[in-house]
């Protein structure tokens, strides 16, 4: 393999690592910024939205959560605010990227000004020495020969400075595009004139390899990305989360949040995982570039590998030290560097399991962010469907990128293999992923709904066995609840809830009617009975809202048996709960088949044997009659 081919393979490995770092940082930054923006938006806008919708957030938790998900005015207010929050998140993420680029350009200048390092030779002096103008300066001529061995282009020739405070025999490189500087430690300079001259040459050639490979730019960009992520993303997110948790938990001022966006341990755990992910990606590229510089210094510039072997022996003789795991270190050990020289692996012979794991976690983070915005109606559902079709090719392409081919192919073979790969990717995306996802969702939904239904049946049997235990005060409050709008809302549920299967003939009309009914029901006072009546009311609202949301969502398939069955199951549970709250009507049905015509009164019965009171206040039996004028109640 020629040096040019080896360099190309090495560059491919570096490109993949840099792509991994940028992908992870954008995914992590977007997720954490979005989480913080949505939490802040939830804490500040929800009270105003609830007040405008006429909903009380101080009721039972299930009722508040149901209102946040299904109250029409609250949902609309939430969607409007979420779109604004989405724009803010995108702008903040773009600002983080711009800040990282600016910081990567400013850091090397700041370092040179901060340290005020004395200059040995400027870049212009090195250029002149390379062209034969070193004069009698032996050290300048020596550095010029090393620069020539490194085959640096003219516009990339560095200057040299000295760090008088660093006594070790090492060096570092910093700078920006076109203005690179190699900083030689004061402990390295004497080795140039001793028998350890090969050590001096190896260290300088290693740093010149960094300059030739543009590792300085990559390193400062990686460092800038990491620092901006910590300062502009992680710390504000954790500070906001801690402030809200402290305010809610320790000052007794707990507030409601949009569903899933309350502060707490979930946000802290997400921040820890994503921070570790960014750190691992950053460490991987920094560690890799050190190994590449070693390989170039030995195999392309002619450095003596015995220098690395002596360093390993001297480190082995020293006292052992505790070290971080390899994937967490920014710099390889001398043993790892010697192993790379003896058996070069920095060429792109394939990625690592760590890389594919980091890529996949980054993709999961992106999906998590998209789902978060989708739940708030800030992202159109069709956009998410398109993104879902791209998920399969993205994952498969990641596999091909991390584990590339092991042997070279001809151009024709490569073209045919590429066409075959693209065809398989799109076939999997179009015909396998989406049906499988729907099947998995349906299976999970059936299991969940079956367990909930069995639990509710068990509760009802226990209540029937034990009998109701309702106090007189609860009975009085229940009567008032029915008279102040409860009866009218129950009548609307009775009118719009389907009796049997969900069906598709009137689905469009039912969507709007049930949505408005659920919203009005959530504005009623809290149901006064926390026992059987309260559970039935909760089940009625929850099941109706879930069925209405499923049937009225974009993309609902009216002819799909699985989806129709799930909707019908929820409607059936809602109808069962309604029968517990609204016994058979006593009034003669009107012409439309429903109780109480335009001139009549709708007479509703409260659940038998639960609230023993008649309109006049005398308990005469096991039913209660409530009169409500009009045909809507």
From TrEMBL:
One of its GO terms (biological process) is proteolysis. GO terms for molecular function: metal ion binding; metalloendopeptidase activity. InterPro entries: Peptidase_M48 (IPR001915). This is Peptidase M48 domain-containing protein. Residues 143-343 form the Peptidase M48 domain. The chain crosses the membrane at residues 85-107, 218-244, 264-281, 354-371, 383-403, 415-433. It comes from the Bacteria. Keywords: Hydrolase, Membrane, Metal-binding, Metalloprotease, Protease, Transmembrane, Transmembrane helix, Zinc. Its cofactor is Zn(2+).
């Amino acid at each position: 393999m020629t040096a040019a081919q080896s360099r190309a393979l090495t560059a491919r490995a570096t490109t993949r690592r840099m792509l991994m770092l940028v992908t992870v940082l954008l995914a992590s930054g977007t997720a954490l910024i979005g989480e913080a923006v949505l939490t802040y938006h939830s804490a500040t806008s929800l009270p105003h939205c609830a007040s405008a919708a006429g909903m009380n957030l101080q009721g039972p938790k299930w009722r508040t959560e149901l209102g946040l998900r299904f109250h029409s005015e609250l949902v609309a207010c939430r969607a409007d605010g979420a779109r604004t929050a989405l724009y803010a998140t995108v702008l903040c993420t773009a600002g983080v990227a711009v800040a990282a680029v600016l910081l990567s350009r400013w850091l090397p200048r700041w370092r040179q000004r901060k340290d005020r390092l004395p200059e040995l030779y400027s870049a212009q002096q090195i250029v002149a020495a390379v062209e034969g103008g070193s004069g009698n300066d032996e050290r300048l001529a020596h550095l010029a020969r090393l620069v020539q061995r490194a085959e640096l282009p003219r516009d990339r020739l560095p200057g040299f400075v000295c760090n008088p405070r660093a006594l070790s025999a090492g060096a570092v490189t910093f700078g920006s595009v076109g203005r690179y500087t190699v900083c030689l430690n004061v402990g390295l300079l004497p080795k140039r004139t001793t028998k350890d001259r090969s050590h001096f040459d190896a260290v300088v050639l290693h740093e010149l390899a960094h300059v030739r490979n543009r590792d300085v730019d990559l390193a400062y960009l990686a460092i800038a990305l990491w620092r901006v992520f910590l300062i502009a993303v992680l710390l504000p997110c954790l500070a906001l989360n801690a402030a809200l948790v402290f305010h809610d938990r320790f000052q007794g001022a707990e507030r409601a949040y949009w569903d899933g966006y309350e502060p707490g341990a979930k946000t802290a755990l997400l921040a820890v995982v994503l921070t570790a992910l960014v750190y691992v990606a950053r460490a991987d590229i920094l560690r890799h570039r050190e190994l590449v510089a070693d390989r170039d210094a030995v195999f392309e510039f002619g450095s003596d590998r015995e220098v690395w072997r002596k360093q390993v022996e001297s480190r082995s003789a020293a006292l052992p030290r505790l070290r971080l795991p390899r994937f967490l270190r920014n710099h390889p050990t001398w043993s790892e560097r010697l192993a790379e020289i003896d058996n070069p692996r920095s060429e792109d012979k394939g990625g690592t399991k760590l890389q594919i794991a980091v890529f996949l976690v980054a993709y999961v983070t992106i999906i998590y962010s998209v789902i978060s915005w989708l739940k708030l109606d800030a992202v159109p559902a069709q956009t998410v469907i398109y993104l879902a079709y791209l998920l399969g090719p993205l994952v498969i392409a990641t596999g091909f990128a991390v584990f590339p081919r092991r042997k070279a192919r001809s151009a024709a073979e490569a073209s045919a293999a590429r066409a075959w790969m693209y065809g398989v990717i799109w076939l999997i995306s179009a015909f396998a992923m989406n049906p499988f996802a729907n099947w998995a969702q349906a299976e999970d939904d059936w299991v969940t709904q079956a367990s909930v239904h069995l639990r509710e049946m068990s509760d009802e049997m226990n209540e029937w066995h034990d009998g109701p235990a309702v106090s007189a005060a609860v009975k009085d409050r229940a009567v008032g609840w029915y008279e102040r709008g409860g009866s009218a809302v129950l009548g609307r549920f009775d009118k719009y809830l389907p009796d049997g299967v969900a069906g598709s003939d009137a689905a469009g009309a039912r969507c709007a009617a049930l949505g408005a009914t659920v919203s009005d029901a959530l504005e009623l006072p809290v149901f006064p009975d926390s026992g059987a009546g309260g559970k039935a009311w909760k089940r009625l609202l929850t099941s109706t809202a879930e069925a209405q949301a499923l049937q009225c969502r974009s993309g609902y398939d009216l002819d799909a048996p699985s989806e129709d069955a799930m909707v019908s199951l929820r409607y059936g549970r809602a109808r069962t709960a309604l029968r517990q709250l609204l016994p058979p009507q006593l009034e003669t049905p009107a012409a439309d088949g429903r109780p109480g015509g335009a001139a009549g009164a709708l007479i509703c019965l409260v659940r038998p044997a639960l609230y023993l009171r008649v309109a006049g206040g005398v308990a005469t039996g096991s039913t209660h009659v409530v009169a409500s004028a009009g045909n809507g109640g």
